[in-house]
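Example 4.3 (complexes with small molecules)
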Amino acid sequence: MKFDGEINKRRTFAIISHPDAGKTTLTEKFLLFGGAIQTAGAVKSNKIRKHATSDFMEIERQRGISVATSVMSFEYRGVLINLLDTPGHKDFAEDTYRTLTAVDSVVLVVDSVKGVEEQTRKLMEVCRMRDTPVIVFINKLDRDGKQPFDLLDEIEKELKIHLHPLSWPINMGKDFKGVYNLYEKSLLLFNPNQKATEDDIVPIKDLNDPILPKLVEEKNANQLKEDVELIEGVYGEFHSEPYLAGKTAPVFFGSAINNFGVKELLDTFIQIAPVPRSRETSARVVDVHEDKFSGFVFKIHANLDPRHRDRIAFLRVCSGRFERNKFYTHVRLEKDVRFSNPYSFLAREKDVIQEAFPGDVVGLFDTGNFKIGDTLTEGEKFYFTGIPTFSPEIFREVINKDPMKTKQLEKGLLQLTDEGVAQLFTQHFGNRKIIGCVGDLQFEVIQYRLLQEYGASVQFNSLPFYKACWITSDNKAKMDEFTRFKTANVVMDKDGHLVYLAQSEWFLNTEISNNPEITFHFSSEIHK
Ligand code: G4P
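Answer. The structure with guanosine-5',3'-tetraphosphate bound is encoded below.
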């Protein structure tokens, strides 16, 4: 209980969205409120230019910036906020899923014009796996979008989560007048292209107040009263328990670009969002209040300078106090490690830190000791669960174009896949190497980085697989038989686990029904 004060001060979360819904813009507004940046546009440069997917300089530039903005820590009204960045590009979705294992809650941005999109659905599935508390921010109310009630309906149905509006828009598009804060019972008027200030907030305790029609016109005032009555009738009072349990998502409406509805979101966020919580491990639940330190690596970032192979491992502190220069147990390697230059992300510069607490993310220089999911403790042997590897969607065989560089290629592939850039599968005793990714862009990144950083030149051959399933069975004879008959489809992952690569859903379903004694898993979590 020693560190309760520190723990209760912290909120660690991520903003997630389908590309273009407004994640970057909202992030930037949060940082402006937190005083972490001074000018609009500072975060924007973090994005890969949308149509420049083959521009390698752009990818390199992005890698450089993304280390600096991977975690943005700032203080807002006495609360220490750790905002973890997630890549906007869909080809880097796996990176986003992993970052979600390191946060305690998320803000999900939905475009009011487009509603629920493909990535919104996938991200929500990942949140649901861990019951991560979600706040929904419906953005771009300054545009003519879908009707608010329709949007709520669509989100509830498509994302399979209950919603509870905490703010409500008055009109939209060019007639957008503002949002009524159902939580605080105050009205925020819209002033396009201006920063919303405290002066724009009109506290209204009673919607029958005669000032309302004067502020937003009679017809809008009537509509708002009707809407609010309906909402209060349907949703009742807001309780934080179902939100904290990941069952109900509070909803806010606004326009990030106009800085509208953002402050209310942030103010409510710091009141209701969860403080760092206890976490499951392979052995037991680690209570966040325990005195002993524990944490895990959720992201690894390679050094940009090809002459230096060191990398930065991002460690999420889960319990106790992390201290500089103290020895900790690297559970997987069964060895003691210590860090003389751990750094935090508070302030704009990277700062070496002496200590860190649950909820914090620490940057550790790594010379190749870490893999994603690695756990550090004060001696106890367990690892944090809930960091699954999902099936890739595109598979290609690696063709070595320069046999003189075979060693470098092997090393490069191992290191890049440790970073989580892609997944590596092997066949025929390691001689055939297959890379699985979620997007085309990653293959370009891998090819480029293998050449730049390891001097290895490769080309890729497309393979006709669509999914990887980890397979297990209690019946060894059956498993041996299956792997013997399906040699073309059975490969090993990096940890030596058997994986079945399916050509199509039909093949997969056929194998599943033909082999009842073999279990097909869609993520690698089962091996933890
Ligand atoms: P992302 O990180 O989720 O991909 O989205 P981002 O914030 O980059 O926003 C995507 C586009 O939507 C940007 O326009 C941004 O200016 C715009 N946008 C964000 N919030 C709002 C809003 O509240 N209302 C409206 N109308 N637009 C909004 P862009 O043209 O792609 O980029 P830029 O030229 O503005 O930089």
